[in-house]
Structures are given as C-alpha cells and as structure tokens.
Amino acid sequence: MAEKAILLDLFPEELKTFLTARNQPAFRAGQVFAWLHKGVPFGDMSNLPTSLRGVLAAEAYDLPLSLHAAFPSKTDHTVKFLNACADGNLIESVLMRYHYGHSLCISTQVGCKMGCAFCASTLNGCVRNLSAGEMLAQVLLANRYLGVSGRVGHVVLMGSGEPLDNYEAVVRFLRLLNHPDGLNLSLRAVSLSTCGIVPRIRALAGEQLPITLSLSLHAPNDEIRRSIMPIAARYPLPELMEAVREYVAQTGRRVVFEYALIQGLNSRPEHARELAALVRGLQCHVNLIPLNRVPERQLEPASPRAVQTFLDTLTALRVSATVRREMGADIAGACGQLRNQHLKEPDKPDMIKT
Ligand code: SAH
Predict the structure, then answer these.
(1) 189-198: per-residue pLDDT in tens?
(2) Residue-number span of the structural domain to which 33 is assigned
(3) Which of 85, 92, 116, 258 is flagged as catalytic?
(4) Per-residue model confidence as pLDDT tens digits over 245-271
(5) Based on CB atoms within 10 Å of each CB, which residue in 1, 180, 267, 344 is the most buried?
C-alpha cells in the first residue's frame, strides 16, 4: 500500500488538487485546511460527509506526530515533549513560558549532521529531514497540551537539526505557520537558528520572511570556531559575516549571535574584545549561553564569574548582549539530550507517559 499523505504539508491549493483527484468538490479544501490547522482529527471534522472523513483517514494523516511523553520541569514552567513520527522516529520540542507568552522550540530534522563538538543532537548523525507538516504538528501538539491555558505565540527553530540543511521544508513550514487560514502566527514571533550555511543565509534573505535570524557563532575567530564547528572549515568567518551583513541590509532585521561560553576555549576577556570587533557596526544582539554540559562531551561551561566578565566586556564596548536564562535544566533542556537519553534507556522510570 502507498504511504499515507501528510496533509499538513500542503498549501490550500495543493489540498484542492489532492481532494479533486478523489472526486471531491474543490471547496472542501478550505474546510479541511482550517480543521487540520486547528489540530482536529478527521473523525471530528463535523462539516465533512462521513464518507469523506473515511477516505481521508484511509489515505492520509491528520496529524503526522503523536505525543509520546511529556516531561514537565519541576523548577520552572518548561515542558519537554518527545513526539513520535509515523515511522517511529522520536523528536523533541520544548515549551517555555516567558512573560510575553508561550514559546515553542521545535526540531527540524531527526538528529543532525553538522557535527558541532558541544551539541547532543549530532551524536548519532542525521536520520532524516522532517517535513513541513511534521514541524507544524509540533506546534499543534503543544497547543493541544496547553488546552485552555494558552497557545504557542512564539516559535524558535532551535531544536534538533540544522534548519538551513532542510531549507525547502523549513520555508514551507514558515509560510504554513503564517497562513491566514491556519495558525496565522506572525513571523516576527519566529526565530531561526543556523550554524552558518552561507548560501542558504543568502537565499533566506530573499524569501521576504520577517523572522529573526540567529547565528550560532560560538567563537570570535576561525581558529577557535573550526575546533568546535566543522561548518567553519567550509564557510570561514569573513564570508559568513559578509552574508550576515547582507541579510541585515536586505531584511532590515537585527541578527542575534548565539555564543556558548566554554571553559578554556572562548570565554576570556580578549575573546569578548575580539567578538566586539567582529560584530562592530552590525545591527545585532549577542546571546551568551552558559554551555549546557552534555555527558558524552568533554567540554565544560565557563564559570559564572567568567560569564559575567565576558558580558561586562561586551557591554563596555557597546555591544548589546544578555545571558540566556537556563530553563528546564532538570529535563535535559539542551538540544538532543532527551532523545539521546531515550535511545539509550527507552524505559527510564521517571518518564511521564501520556
Ligand atoms: N542547528 C542550528 C539550530 C539548533 S541548536 C544551529 O546550529 O544554530 C540551537 C542552539 O543551541 C545553537 O546555538 C547551538 O549551537 C546551541 N547549543 C547546542 N548544544 C549546546 C550546549 N550543549 N550548550 C549550549 N548551547 C548549545
């Protein structure tokens, strides 16, 4: 039997093609699209004939993911989700509550192939890309979990995977997320984080999507960057910074640099000064992240004092910078940690099955 179609991957026009090929009137596409983007299962699409609901259920997925387990943090409002794809792969999303509302961090791939030395997501390589509908389903499942207590208002593409290594599906996802007949989420409330795939940053600048670009910099020079991020060998900093400058010029949006402070590597005051020189004149913000310790990796976080000195050095040099609050540390908050834990110990007792 042919694989089932993921209807959440489709724009209304494409859904129309899918339905008319099954002898359905074109106007059903709008109805189905609206239900799907509310997270409603086929069986509950009450304005569709029962026969059509049956056809859809036999040939397609309403939601291509199911919630496998939820891990609410005991110390803050963070909840980590493990979702199961139709093919059995598990992916993570993290729901965070800020003063401005609920923010969801989603995965864009099963695993990652970028090989960054500090990151848990890449430990087992990249299994496959997620489809646009699988990204959207992470948002719908988080909304379902929240129920009447709220809905996801911000989305960050900072979970497992390199979004720009899955470019087409990611751009499709962003347009679907923003679709007026769907969730209609403002792209100003979306951040995309990349390790720095230069040609794709240039392509993204041309998409007319008012998202915030986050760049995982983590080093003030190529020597340090190459020692922790293989992508740095492919796209050296001068090239990368040029692409980022063009992105800012073309979109008018400020760029965010992510910088994880690692002991003995990139966290000394001279590194802060080098970083300030690197980003001088750019409309940007630096997000300092105390490294999340990953058991499989040897790297250690910089001390709180070193973090503060680094921040003060940047601030004194008039670079806008903040230290990211750690959230959900007790639930393996860093990218890829939870999935890895699960791959190793699938029946861990503290797991909250749903
Ligand atoms: N592939 C994309 C998005 C996923 S990672 C990227 O590289 O940007 C989201 C952010 O978390 C990135 O800035 C990544 O470098 C950072 N990160 C990964 N592992 C981390 C760790 N152990 N501690 C702190 N930050 C980490």
Answers:
(1) 999 999 999 9
(2) 5-61
(3) 92
(4) 999 999 999 999 999 999 999 999 999
(5) 267
